[in-house]
Automatic annotation (TrEMBL):
Keywords: Hydrolase, Signal. Residues 1-19 form the signal peptide. SMART domains: ChtBD3. Residues 359-404 form the Chitin-binding type-3 domain. It comes from the Bacteria. This is Chitinase. It comes from Streptomyces noboritoensis.
Length: 407
């Protein structure tokens, strides 16, 4: 899956919090980085992906304030672009000398949150490909765990690395070593999803884990960029993947679900599939109803509306290409963690005078059903389903109204 990593990663543009940076640098100078927050595993399981250095990084603290989110999955640690077995951010920024990502981590922890780090991803060279064996791969990742005092780590094993059986053996072996050497470390393994659950290489990865006797907290699939469209296709894939976990490890369905995770893509995918707020709700209901261990998505950098909202039918690394309020999708992760997101204030009214709409004005007393159109604050809105007293342009209704543009 491309997940818009290689093509849309621009220059680092994060607005780093001065307090967070000072805390991190001071901690490094004293030899004691800021301690990780004590969060439950459910939060690490609900941490959405965030690129802290690329794709117009949003302010993590603002997301926390708006949604109640506490955990972030920082992406991605890779091998150096020039080769070698030392960890870098995106292949370019050595972890050993990093302060930029460290300041983001410190700022999140200062607000009571924490981070996991994702290694691998789509594109770039992975440490499992360049390190000589599982032990040296684990040693490279241990530098990341130690540097940021991590309590969670994600192995994102996909193209092209997961087509290399030696590299996958290194990655799985490293994950097992880290699990043993860091008691309580939350370990997730994320791989490609298909309609059947996962493909041949995904199944080979599971077989490698079985051969090495490695069981992470969860194996997650990414059911997008593979002919999916909407929640029904995704939940079907999750059901099929559950059967694969059962047959591979000899688990019951319940045990398999307890080791299964979902990693989605919000809005428009690389291949033009669409996953809107209602799809996320359906998958969330499936995940919680079946006792799944993880619910996450790619990415927080994309969890905001494009201009125009549909982005002219294209996919972006910095916005979702669907109508939404900022951080709509993050709130589903918050709900998976077991918390109710805070109620957002109404969106700011337009600064330009509203035009004249050809449809009736919205009424708080009226009942609307799917397809009904109303005007409100200079925009025309269409109801997606039954609703009453849910104001268009706010996020408390979780996307019931589709913004059809200014009048």
């Amino acid at each position: 899956m491309k997940r818009l990593r290689a093509l849309l990663c621009g220059a680092a543009t994060a607005a780093l919090a001065t307090a967070g940076l000072s805390a991190f640098v001071a901690g490094q100078a004293s030899g004691a980085p800021a301690a990780a927050a004590a969060l439950s595993n459910r939060w690490y399981a609900a941490a959405p992906y965030l690129m802290p250095l690329d794709n117009n990084p949003p302010n993590a603290g603002a997301i926390m304030d708006a949604t109640g989110l506490k955990a972030f999955q920082l992406a991605f640690v890779l091998a150096p672009n020039g080769g070698g077995c030392s960890p870098t951010w995106g292949g370019a920024a050595p972890v050993s000398s990093d302060t930029a990502v460290g300041s983001v981590v410190a700022a999140i922890r200062a607000k009571g949150g924490d981070v996991s780090v994702s290694v691998g991803g789509y594109g770039g060279t992975k440490l499992g490909q360049t390190c000589s064996d599982a032990a040296s791969t684990a040693a490279a990742y241990q530098q990341v765990i130690t540097k940021y005092q991590l309590k969670a780590i994600d192995f994102d094993l996909e193209e092209p690395e997961y087509e290399n059986s030696t590299a996958i053996a290194h990655e799985i072996g490293a994950a097992k070593i880290l699990q043993q050497n860091n008691p309580g470390l939350y370990v997730s393994v994320t791989t490609a999803g298909t309609a059947d659950g996962t493909g041949w290489f995904g199944k080979q990865m599971l077989n490698e884990a079985k051969a090495q006797g490695f069981v992470p907290n969860n194996f997650s699939i990414m059911p997008f960029d593979g002919g999916f469209n909407g929640a029904a296709a995704q939940t079907s894939a999750l059901t099929n993947f559950n059967s694969i976990l059962q047959s591979t490890f000899g688990w019951s369905a319940a045990t398999a679900y307890a080791h299964e995770g979902f990693s989605g893509m919000n809005g428009r995918s690389d291949t033009g599939e669409y996953f809107r707020q209602a799809d996320f709700q359906t998958v969330l209901d499936y995940a919680t109803g079946h006792g799944m261990d993880r619910f996450t998505f790619w990415s927080l950098n994309r969890d905001r509306q494009c201009s125009p909202p549909d982005n002219n039918g294209t996919t972006s690394g910095t916005c979702s290409s669907v109508a939404q309020a900022d951080w709509d999708f993050a709130k589903y992760a918050v709900r998976f963690a077991g918390t109710t997101p805070p109620t957002d204030p109404p969106t700011t009214p337009p600064t330009t005078p509203p035009g004249s709409c050809s449809v009736a004005a919205w009424s708080s007393a009226a009942i609307y059903t799917s397809g009904n159109e109303v005007s409100h604050k200079g925009h025309k809105w269409k109801a997606k389903w039954w609703t009453r007293n849910e104001e268009p342009g706010t996020t408390g209704e979780w996307g019931v109204w589709l913004d059809e543009g200014a009048c």
